[in-house]
Every structure is written in structure tokens, then in C-alpha cells.
Specification:
The chain is of the alpha/beta class. 40% of the residues lie in helices and 15% in strands.
């Protein structure tokens, strides 16, 4: 059993990850702002799931999280930096607050989470550690009006390999997953939605869960600093206007 901290674990991909890892008998720390969804999840796995309410758009949210972890004397084995928020807004309408909060949640928080965790570890003495950052294919390709989201996810990919270099002596492997279109809600999907993927289907949370399983595995000790793109081949498909 491992103790795994998951940010943004109350909904979507994060919830799927938490549920899967809990079913594997791990202890999960869910860090989220959605109190109702997180507490509902934790009640299903009483005694093996702890909820910490924190607004991770702001640095104080990270401080509050680790204060609570220290209070309960928990030793974290792995962190999954999953918290994020889609943002599409015309460039000329972006406010400074939009930019600061997007950056704070999706880029600064993974850095601060990593820093605070490493402060509590001992170089050379801990034999297992994992950080998995959940980025996006928007780090590699864009649509109009997605500057903040693309900026943050691109930065998260770069942060991944920077952390992997810095944390070698702590035996922490740091990797990144960039999901493409992942259907997290039960909404109608057209054949065209599926067929624009080389795999002939959109993605589902189970696709990300399988990758996280692999990266967390004890015997996976040679994948480090990488960005794993899980998008059904969509970023490899050239599209021409006819």
C-alpha cells in the first residue's frame, strides 16, 4: 500500500484515478476545492481516503495542504499533479486575474507541491518516489483563444524534465502524461468524433489510469523525465483544408 496525493481528485480524470488507486488498497489524499464530490468519494472508501480542501489557484492552498499532511504525520510516496481548468477566452478579453489564476493552478501548484514534498524527504535514503504531472496535448498543438491553458500545460511538460534532473538523488521519478480528447462525462459522441482519431475512438479515463498504473509501478525504474502523449494518434494526423 502506498500513500498517494492527487490534486483535482474529486472529478473527471482525477476521480477516476483516485477510485482506481483506492481499489488497489492504496491510501489516497484528495486535494480539491469541490467539497461535496470529494467527501462523497472518501465515504465510499472510509479509512483509506482523506480529503483536504484547498484552493490551489493560490500558493496558500499548497501550504494548507502540507500543514494538514504534517498534522496527521502522513508520509507521501507519490504525487499526481492533476488539478486543472479549461480556459478559452479571446486574448483581448483576458484579465490579469484570469492569467494569474490559470498559472497558479496549473503550473505554480505542481512546482510548489513538488518542492514541499521533497523538503520532507531525505536524499539517498528513500527508495521509492513518483511525481506524475497531468498536462495536455494543448502543450503541443492549439486552438484559438487557448493561450493560458496552452502556456501552462507547455510549462508543465518542461517542469517535468527539470524536476527529473533535480530529484535524481532523491530517487524520485518524474513523468508527464498529456491526454488528448478524454470523455469524462456521458455525452453523445458522433462517428466523426471517433474517426478523427487514428485509433477510431475518443479517449476515456481508463486510458489515463492504465498509464498512471504503469508509471507508479515498483518495477518501472527506467522511464524518467518523459511526456507520454495519450491521444489516439490525433497529434500525428495532418489535416488539410479541402
Amino acid at each position: 500500500m502506498k500513500t498517494i496525493l492527487v490534486t483535482g481528485g474529486a472529478n473527471g480524470i482525477g476521480r477516476a484515478l483516485c477510485t482506481h488507486l483506492l481499489m488497489q488498497e492504496n491510501f489516497i489524499i484528495v486535494v480539491d476545492i469541490d467539497e461535496i464530490a470529494a467527501e462523497t468519494l472518501c465515504r465510499q472508501f472510509e479509512g483509506r481516503c482523506m480529503f483536504i480542501k484547498a484552493d490551489l489557484r493560490f500558493a496558500q492552498g499548497v501550504t494548507d495542504t502540507f500543514n494538514k499532511i504534517d498534522e496527521y504525520r502522513l508520509v507521501v510516496d507519490a504525487i499526481i499533479n492533476n488539478a486543472g481548468k479549461g480556459m478559452t477566452k479571446p486574448l483581448t478579453e483576458l484579465s490579469n486575474q484570469d492569467i494569474e489564476e490559470g498559472y497558479g493552478l496549473m503550473l505554480r501548484t505542481p512546482l510548489l507541491m513538488s518542492r514541499e514534498w521533497v523538503k520532507r524527504r531525505t536524499a539517498h535514503n528513500d527508495d521509492y518516489g513518483r511525481i506524475i504531472n497531468i498536462a495536455s496535448t494543448r502543450a503541443l498543438m492549439s486552438e484559438p483563444d487557448g493561450e493560458v491553458y496552452a502556456m501552462c500545460k507547455g510549462g508543465l511538460v518542461s517542469l517535468t524534465h527539470a524536476l527529473a534532473n533535480s530529484l535524481q538523488s532523491y530517487n524520485i521519478q518524474v513523468n508527464c502524461i498529456s491526454p488528448g480528447w478524454i470523455a469524462t462525462r456521458d455525452i453523445p459522441l458522433r462517428d466523426a468524433d471517433h474517426h478523427q482519431h487514428l485509433s477510431n475512438r475518443v479517449g476515456y479515463p481508463k486510458d489515463i489510469v492504465a498509464a498512471v498504473d504503469y508509471l507508479l509501478a515498483d518495477d518501472n525504474s527506467f522511464i524518467n523525465g518523459q511526456n507520454l502523449v495519450i491521444d489516439g494518434g490525433m497529434t500525428k494526423k495532418m489535416i488539410y483544408v479541402e
